[in-house]
Amino acid sequence: MIKVGLTGGIGSGKSTVSAILKNNKFKIIDADNIAKEVLEKNPQILDTVRVEFGAGFFDWRGEFRRKEFGNHIFRFPKQRVKYEQIIMPYIKKYIEEELEDYRKKKEKIVILDAPTLIENKMHEEMDYVILVCADNSVQIRRVMERDKLSKVEAVSRINSQMSMEEKKEYANILIDNNGDLENTKKQVDDLMKFLKLVC
């Protein structure tokens, strides 16, 4: 089974590429969805968050204030690393279980869609790494529009991640997502032809 890592910085358009691949019947493991599932199924994670980061990130009903917490950890990179150290072992375990399920089903190719694929060294387990790229100005505009953030907040989130240039050093395949959707679709079509050839 060929394992392909799909990654990109916030606002790069990785989710768009992932959706095109999914619509073309490629098997996708979505690390963001797994992260949400992990929080729901493992309440001890939020217990640890409450202890380590304070009760201020929970409302009066005890519900986790995800957006406020997200803004906080993106503003303070050391806090984000601290949070990832708590949650990543659970996420990796779930990803490994899903990969094993697909292996048992004799799938030929599986794509792991993970924004921090490289930062968390998951790229080392992949046969290919695809990086969706966009210029910094494009990322800022998209993040502001999509997440209704100020420019300062958008820049803070982008700067909290590994730079696009650094990520390029680990990638086998680049998708330039600065243009329009048609241009992206053409590149993804070429990518799908390649993936079908190698498997």
UniProtKB/TrEMBL annotation:
The keyword Membrane does not apply. Its main location: cytoplasm. Transmembrane segments: none annotated. One of its GO terms (cellular component) is cytoplasm. It is an enzyme of class 2 (transferase). Coiled coil: none annotated. Pathway: Cofactor biosynthesis; coenzyme A biosynthesis; CoA from (R)-pantothenate: step 5/5. Keywords: ATP-binding, Coenzyme A biosynthesis, Cytoplasm, Kinase, Nucleotide-binding, Transferase. It is found in: Cytoplasm. It holds the Pfam family CoaE. Gene3D superfamilies: P-loop containing nucleotide triphosphate hydrolases. HAMAP family: Dephospho_CoA_kinase (MF_00376). This is Dephospho-CoA kinase. It comes from Clostridium neonatale. The gene is coaE.
